[in-house]
Amino acid sequence: MTNSDPPLLNHYGALSSHSTRCDDPRSQLIVKECRLPLIDLSGSSRRDEMVRQACVEAICGASSEWGFFQVLNHGISLRLVEKMRSEQVKWESPSATCPKQFSWSKAFHVPLTKVSDKACYGEFVSLREVMMEFTAAMSKLARLLAGDLTENMGHGKEVMDNLCDESTCFLRLNHYPARPISPEIFGLVPHTDSDFLTILCQDQAGVLQLTKDSKWVTVKPNQDDLIVNIRDLFQAWGNGVYKSVEHKVVTNAKMERYSNAYFLCPSYDSSIGSFKEPSIYQKFTFGEYRDQVQEDVRKTGYKVGLSRFLVNGTDERCPVDAHFQAIRPN
Ligand SMILES: O=C(O)CCC(=O)C(=O)O
Ligand SMILES: [Fe+2]
Predict the structure, then answer these.
(1) SS3 state of residue 108
(2) Chain-centre distance of CA 68, in angstroms?
(3) Is 260 near ligand 1, meaning CB less than 6 Å away?
(4) How confident is the model over 129-162, as pLDDT tens digits?
(5) DSSP 225
(6) Which residue segment(s) compose the domain that 237 sits in?
(7) Which end of the chain is least crowded, N or C, by CB within 10 Å?
(8) What percent of the chain has pLDDT over 70?
């Protein structure tokens, strides 16, 4: 018996029997395994300016070319990563409208402002302590990386620090039970995310895939590395220089999988203008962006995302934003 989850299975079964087709042409794309650019962050804190600069260039290059990279010597100990993983126990159910939008996973979504709130944890007392230590470390790393990406665009590191806000940043704990049914079911549906930058910590069971040169590529899991992804807001702020790429999680028939992700977000009233003119995107606030994404998902089942804000834009159909489907941030 695989480690299935009855509510997920019931939900998927109901969707399969009632839904109309929602085929996705992208599912035809070839999948291959790849190693993401691996960046040693010990260089970023070095006194030696040339070493530091080489590290920043590697971060910015990977953010433009891939939108994803792995980091090593990131300052978050394996002990903390493992402690965090062992505490991932509480989940929330997703709400899809057809099987192709259905994610075989559950998520526990914790806004930073709630991390220390005892009432959020109920009986899971030890989770609170680890969460506090873990989110503090992830927050520091996310701001460091965002600062490097900002500086590379000719702005002070403090720009991102000023934009980003505790009240909207969050940690998401994902659990992907082993799949008892169709191999076509996603662990997490293809999507881009609506924050600035995400740091992901995945276990060894992982099948995280991302798009590179119009193909799906599988990221080789490595316990010691963290995965950094550029997201929609950095793409907009960077006027398209940094890429927010579509990604998804494929289910595993034999093993369950855990991951957690730290989302670096600005306050809702922050204006996300491009850093230079002519801007390819209209100015919008984070709040407006989220409202628009939610409205599109509600009306069409799809996230239109950044293309809706292009100055000379078209309304392309874009992937569903998993966070508007699976979770509803406060
Ligand atoms: O679990 C993963 O590897 C990916 C998670 C993800 O994409 C997300 O939470 O937005
Ligand atoms: Fe994501």
Answers:
(1) strand
(2) 10
(3) no
(4) 999 999 999 999 999 999 999 999 888 888 888 8
(5) -
(6) 2-326
(7) N
(8) 79
**The model's pTM:** 0.84
**Does residue 260 contact residue 91 with C-beta atoms inside 8 Å?**
no
Give the ligand 1 atom nearest the CA of 193: 10
Distance of CA 165 to the CA centre of its chain: 17
Q: How far is the CA of 200 from the centre of ligand 2 (A)?
A: 9
CB-CB contact of 50 with 56 (8 Å)? no
Question: What's the number of domains the chain is made of?
Answer: 1
**What is the DSSP code (8-state) at residue 275?**
S
| Tokens matching residue 244 | 């927010």
| Nearest ligand atom owner, CA of 173 | 1
Q: What is the phi-psi region of residue 171: left when phi exceeds 0, alpha when psi lies from -120 to 50, beta otherwise?
A: beta
Which residue, judged by its Cα, is nearest atom 9 of ligand 1? 261
Ligand 1 nearest-atom number relative to CA 248: 7
DSSP code, position 176 = E
Ligand 1 centroid from CA 49, angstroms: 34
Q: How many CA atoms lie within 13 A of 104 on its CB side?
A: 30
The answer, yes or no, to whether residue 1 has pLDDT greater than 60, is no
Position 314 scores a pLDDT of 55
ipTM over 0.90 threshold: yes
Question: Does 259 sit in the ligand 1 pocket, CB within 6 Å?
Answer: yes
The alpha carbon of 14 and the centre of ligand 2 are apart by a number of angstroms equal to 25
Asked if residues 279 and 273 have their Cβ atoms less than 8 Å apart, the reply is yes
DSSP 48-80: -HHHHHHHHHHHHHHHHHTSEEEEES-S--HHH
pLDDT in tens, 183-242: 678 888 899 999 999 999 988 876 899 999 989 999 988 878 999 999 999 999 999 999
Q: Using an 8 Å Cβ cutoff, are 63 and 151 in contact?
A: no
Which among 254, 213, 207 is positioned nearest to 33, based on CA atoms? 207
Q: Which two tokens stand for residue 60?
A: 């910015």
Q: Is 208 in the pocket of ligand 1 (CB under 6 A)?
A: yes
